Input
Amino acid sequence: MTVDCDVCIIGGGITAALFAEKFSELAPGRRIIVVEAGNRLFDFENRTLYRDRNLQYGENAWPGDFIPDQSARGVISRTMAVGGSAMHWEAHANRFSQEDLRLHSLYGLATDWPLEWGELEAYYCEVDRRIGVAGDPSPFPEDRRSQPYPMPAMPLSFSLNHVKTWAEKSGIPFQSCPQAKNTREYDGRSVCKRCNTCNICPTGARYSPDFTFKRLLEAKRISLHDRTLVRRLITDKTGSRVVEAQAVHRDRPDEVLTYRADTFVLAGGYTWSPHLLLLSTSARFPRGLANSSGLVGRYMTGHPFVTAQIEMDGPFYPGMNEHHPLISRKFFRCRPDEPFVRHDIQIFESTANHQPRLRGDADRYLFGNELIADWRARASRGAARVRMYYDAHPDRDSTLTLDPTSKNRWGDPLPKIDHRFDEATRARESATRAHIQRIYETLARASHARILSVNTGGYLDHPSGGCRMGTDRASSVCDSYGRTHDHHNLFVIGAPTLPTGGCTNATMTFSALTLRSAHHVAGSVGPATHAR
Amino acid sequence: MNRRTVLRGLAAAAAALPLGTIPLEAQPETFIADHEKLLKEIAAAVLPESLGRRGTDDATDAFLRWIRNYRSGVAMDNGYGVTHPQDTAPLPFARYAAQLRALDDAARGRGRGMEALSVDERRVLIDRSLREADVQQMPVRPAGHHIVADLMTFYYRSPEATDLCYQAAIHRFECRGLGESTQPPSPAYGRR
Output
């Protein structure tokens, strides 16, 4: 079966949702099809039940959100569904900073991004409006915004307010972390009720892309082909233009689906967009599409992190708001004449060392009131989880490759991701860790605090890269709008295009870049040609 | 929404679960019928005395409802940072039953059934049973290692137990107003 459209968006996560929404506003009447391998999880009415099953039994709160034989080694989320990972995100709506775009100019590190901060900042504001972000202005003038947040910040819970008082004794300012959660009714969704399970919000107060998709579908502004896996992109004879996406429906595995479009937009995230390009080999393109630079699947990035559990005078009352942190952006900037280190600091309430236990200090079992007394004595103090994402830059050999030892049911090799930092990052690693440790110790000087543990994350959070943007086609895959250098009607949007991964949550950055791409694509496509 | 409300809701909704075709276990009913009485005698020794017998019985009933509504073979959490999804394992009813049988035998070995033993006498038997099973820590939720440890985990990990510990109506995982969360929880815990 062959399906014709103007724009074929491959992948159905948050960037697909926002691209489709904006593009359909700017170019009404265009036929837009979103093709997603996973299921649509639109049964909002069951979300309370799923949440309860998750709390009671640890069952997946998003049943059916992954495809068992379609995974990748090295991914940190197997979610493949309409809405993607943003179905279960905690909606921390932080921005990068200007420094992320000028790492080479300012510090001689990594590379600069091929766009200006002021332009990106305007799109950050647009994302704020579209998904609904609640936040307070940053205390740092460098974080100035061109538009206010659409909603006032999430208030600090009783416990988090105490944590803030403690943390600011260090001299580091903290504020309520901006969140894509409603502090008032917004965009037809209710106000947050702090149910304490933001990974599955039962009220709809937290933004997730299913809301956007449902609205677009109801207005017939897009078509959504879920459970449909795109396996190859095909170019015309010149190789400059993609003409087809070949796909298969998971319920009709023997039938080849062909999507023909004027414009193809890869919105499969850091794993599946570069993967599809690498799969799309031909005699003319033996290394896959968009890969004349050889950089598809390279410079895979993200940010490493360190987490400490710190106990201090209390008591606090954990459990009213565990998904809303404080944030400090104090260390987003680094003076060029000082050793390079950039990171955020996020502090959450915690129950570390304040959990009930079966065995006491005397190595005997505790029962009944004695167990409660033991628990109560330890819980008389407060605790906080202090996490820092720090800036680390990818090596060229930080890769996503096709793994011949792992294939899906159609025989396609699946991706394998091996992160590797560049030499400068590796050289400063011990100094970075020492800097972070000093901050923990500074925090721990107040309120009789003590550091319970310090742990390094075992993966890179908010991963990105694999199709990095740039102005030089020899050192990048696409331009700043995501248009691939090799194929003028093929775009990559969101996470894969990032040259470097920043040092704070990245969804807002993926989304802002996506809106910028949508604006550009809408302005550059020709008239709709529905008759083929 | 408290644990009991949740469980009541789950029981009512079980028939209409849009969660696939995995049936609820058949074994729980037999297990519950055979062991409910003994479990309640054990609960009276391992759960807080401050609950009173009625409270420990209620907590045991909630645990048995949890068992009744448990489903094996269901995908577990697959969220951010979870790269190796697993399915829920079957509840080990044979192990549970053997552990309870051994406890019952030990009680009868003292010439009386569990119900006739004092709390301290029961705890001696339970302590020995937990040691034999090498139970070390309290998991996040019942893990099938030992029936008594699972009963204790079920209760002590509950929002009600958190409220008892903090002597405050925190009502963890209950939805609340934004403004309410900025205030300290009421000291009137245990009331709804």
Chain A touches chain B through 66 residues (CB under 8 Å). Residues 189 and 205 of chain A are 6 Å apart (CA to CA).
